[in-house]
Every structure is written in structure tokens, then in C-alpha cells.
Amino acid sequence: MTSLTCAGKGLAFSFLISACFLSLFQDVNGYEPNWKSIDSRPLPGWYDDAKLGIFIHWGVFSVPSFSSEWFWYRWKVKKYPPVVEFMEKNYPPDFTYADFGKEFTAEFFDANKWADMFEKAGAKYVVFVSKHCEGFTNWPSKYSFSWNSMAVGPKRDIVGELMNATRSRTDLKFGLYHVLYEWLHPLYLKDKESGFKTQDFVNLKTMPEMYEIVETYKPEIFFSDGDWEAPVEYWKSLEFLAWLYTYSPVKDTVIVNDRWGIGANCTHGGYYTCGDRYNPGVLQKHKWENAMTIDKRSWGFRRNAPLADYLSIEELLQTFVITISCGGNMLMNIGPPKHGQISPIFEERLLQVGSWLKVNGEGVYASRPWTYQNETVTKGVWYTKKTDASGTSLYAFVFHWPDTGTLSLDLPQVSSATKVSLLGYPTLFNYHARSPRGLDISVPPIAVSKMPCQWVWVFKITAVVN
């Protein structure tokens, strides 16, 4: 009963959180609030198999939908000239950021349609922005009294609706993004002014919110952000993670990232994100994620974004392939407009990725990095592998169709049992094995109507030796 009592106090009386945890971990076999203990927790296997997730940035910043989701900060803190000029031209002098709240209408938001679309995209998990740096919560938080989606704007529990739709209609894992700090919250600014010696913002706002969303929505991924100005101790991240892994309703399945305070990024936590759009292009020792955006310049919706600012499907798939070849997952972001209807450009990219995965998912889901990540003799070829009782199969992702009639690969060492095929195509391909390794695959002309997909083709090479 000790754990239940303390967990309840952590939610209802946030100022008692630290004292509560100190008593909890003295006599319970669980994770302790230190990095050695937290980092010892194995990463639940489903995450490495999943490969693709959908990130959704949606909030009050979707109303001005100009510059980026950092609109308020650029307007009031950085006084970024294009944003200041935008406000001066289009809004009265006494207009405040809070006035945008009532215009966050969400009239076309249909959680069922969103969930269905994410499933068709071939994703295996969703990470929804429950709160960004503006402080507006997309759920009726008790700790954001008049600045949440039930009190202002949609008058709906957005997080709850999407959670229910995702879990009732799909097999996708449901995750939440939550930002630790808030740009202009008075308590945070006061703590910052003290050199983070006081923790009023953490005790009365951030930590209670975090316990609240875990207890209420039971996310399978907790993506933390906004940590970089203060140390881990200020955020009380270790106490939260120890509770999350030991006592929370998702203690056995939840996965977290690495954004928990100064010094934690790319070093501690579950999977590493290291930085936005992180894609190192080489194999990493620790499981990582490429959190990236289809809109190259913003995570939130931009009304004035030209087509050139969106990744083409070729760019998107190539980014994805390089990511998984090097051991990462890709979290692909979309930013819906204020009304909640996902824009055609995002819908098209999601469905294109989904159609490609229907053909080539065998080389993606539950695959692992090979000894070599990319080819040396032919540019634009990246590898994954799968190993079972019959041996190891390689999947060569080819960015440019070999219209010369031959696909030359230097790295695979084939055996007498090796067969070469193209995912989605019914006929085996002839090849010539080279010594000591490598092969030349004969690629005859294939009618466009019989091509299995339009972009990034995957050759399967079975029974390789290396």
C-alpha cells in the first residue's frame, strides 16, 4: 500500500513528490532515481521492431500558422522581425497570444479518420503533442486551469479522443509528447531567475501534469522535451522515471527518450534522439530515433509554406531507409491546421509511405542493421538484415533503378543456396557471384506496369555468408 499512497500524493500534492520517492525506493525492488538504475532497464522489444512512428504537432500555434510552432516566442521574446510585422499588419495592438486560443476551433478534427490514416501510412506508433512550450494542454489538465483544450477553443479532450480512436481502431502504440518548460510561465521565469535553485514551476506545474497524463492516458511512449535550460535535478526527472518504470500503469511497456535535463541528451534514457532531425548516417551503439518533419522548416502548420519546403516522397523514403539501416526509428511529423483536417500534402505523403511499405515492409519491420550499412561500389544502396533458422537474408534498398541492366554490389558474400528477388515482383533474378565477395545482379527491363513500386526498390538476397 505504500506505493499506492505515495503515487497518489505525487499526483495530488506535487510538493511532496521527492520525499515520497525517497521512502518508496528504500524497501521496494524497483528502479531507483539514478541514471545507473534507470539506464539498466531493457528497451521493450516492440519499439525496435516498429521502425516508423507518426509525430503530430497541433496546438494554439496552429492558429497563426506562421513562422513555426515557436511563433509566440519569436513574437514576444526574440521579436523576430517577420513575426512582429505579421502581427502589426493583421491584428490590433492589444491582441495577445491568449486571444488565439478561442480560434483553435478543431471543427474538422475526427480522431477516427486520423487513426485510420496513420495505420494506412504503415506506422506502428503515434506520438501526439499533449503540450508544447506555449503551455496549452490538449487535455483538460487540472494544472492548466483556463489554458487547455476543454476550457478554450475546441472544448474537447483532444488527447483522450485520439487515444481512444488509436486503441479501438488500430494496433498502433499510443504515445505522448510533453514539454518540460514553458517560455513565459511566471513560475518558470522566477525559477530561472534564481538559477534554478527554486522549483516552484516543477512542483506545481510540470511534474503534476506528467503524472496526470500517465495515470489518465497510459501512453506507451513518453517523449520529453524542453529540458535544455536546466539540470536533471531541477526537473526531478530521475524521480519521475523511477516511478514510471516501477509503479506507473505502463511500467512494463512504456518507452522514453533522452530529453530529461542538461547532460542527459544522447547519453541517458530509453532511446536517444540527440537533436531534431538526427540522422548520423552511421551505425549507432544505442537505439535511437530520427524525429523529423515533412515540412523542412516547421513542426507546426504553416499557411504560407511553398511546395518546395515539403520533403518529396523520394527524399522521405531515402531518409527513412538511411535511418533504419543505421539502427534508428523514424518519427515522421505532420502539423495539422487549426480546424483539424490533415492537409492534402501531408495526407499524400502518409499514404505514399504506406503504399511503399505494403510492398517493402518485409525489409523494414523487425529488421536489424547489417555489418555494413551502405554499399561502396554503387551509390544509393543501403542494407538491413533478418536472420532466422534458414540463415541470414539481406535487403538492399536501391535509391536509383539500375537501368544499365546490372546492379553491382561489393559487400554481400553469397553461398550456393543464395537466391535474389525483388520485393513485390514474382520472378527470381539471375546473378554472378564474385570472389571473395560481391555479386552482379542481372536486372532485365521490367514494364512500368509490372514494377512493384515507384520509388526505392528492395532486392532480397538470401543465405548470405557474412
TrEMBL record:
It comes from the Eukaryota. Pfam families: Alpha_L_fucos, Fucosidase_C. Its EC number is 3.2.1.51. This is alpha-L-fucosidase. InterPro entries: FUC_metazoa-typ, Fucosidase_C, GH, Glyco_hydro_29, Glyco_hydro_29_N, Glyco_hydro_b. Residues 28-362 form the Glycoside hydrolase family 29 N-terminal domain. It comes from Aplysia californica. Residues 373-462 form the Alpha-L-fucosidase C-terminal domain. Residues 1-30 form the signal peptide. Alpha-L-fucosidase is responsible for hydrolyzing the alpha-1,6-linked fucose joined to the reducing-end N-acetylglucosamine of the carbohydrate moieties of glycoproteins. Belongs to the glycosyl hydrolase 29 family. Keywords: Glycosidase, Hydrolase, Signal. SUPFAM superfamilies: (Trans)glycosidases.
